[in-house]
Amino acid sequence: MQETLVVVGAAVLRNGRVLAAQRARPEALRGRWEFPGGKARPGEAPEAALVRECREELGAHVRPLHQVGPDVPLTAVGPSAVLRLWTAELVEGDPRPLEHLALRWLSAGELHTVEWLPADLPFLAPVGAHLAPPAARSE
Ligand SMILES: Nc1nc2c([nH]c(=O)n2[C@H]2C[C@H](O)[C@@H](COP(=O)(O)OP(=O)(O)OP(=O)(O)O)O2)c(=O)[nH]1
């Protein structure tokens, strides 16, 4: 049986917001938004891949907290590829876009304002539940 290729993603939370990253490459995905992460290497634990990828992409040390929802199939990446997401917290460093076009800290109200990669869409509701609710309007 073919081994599952796990693409790991980190929903890094800080002050009630989540970090979104804008892809630079490949051209077909340039400009779309995703969770920082990447492919786990053969034999590499997915959580270790998450920490490694965030260090490479953001120059920051993150700690995975909880897995979010079920895996999402990534048929464009491979027949048995999946996207697996964790919430994560920053342990050290201020994230910088070392490999992305831009980074944004999105509030609950901003979560749907960027153009996410399609596979990320099922994760937005459970991630949104971790964000601070929009401030109540005083009228
Ligand atoms: N990192 C990441 N990749 C995602 C997300 N959603 C999604 O569809 N993908 C897709 C885009 C890519 O086709 C694939 C991840 O590939 P990648 O290029 O980030 O992986 P990598 O850093 O290990 O790079 P490489 O070895 O292929 O060069 O998964 C997401 O939220 N985060």
From TrEMBL:
Signal sequence residues = none
Answer whether the UniProt record assigns the keyword Chloroplast to this protein: no
Record keywords: Cell wall biogenesis/degradation included? no
Q: What is its EC number?
A: 3.6.1.55
Enzyme class, top EC level, equals hydrolase
The Nudix hydrolase domain is annotated at 3-131
PANTHER family with a match to the protein in the record: 8-OXO-DGTP DIPHOSPHATASE, NUDIX HYDROLASE FAMILY PROTEIN
Family statement: Belongs to the Nudix hydrolase family.
Give the protein's recorded name. 8-oxo-dGTP diphosphatase
Highest lineage ranks of the organism?
Answer: Bacteria, Bacillati, Actinomycetota, Actinomycetes, Streptosporangiales
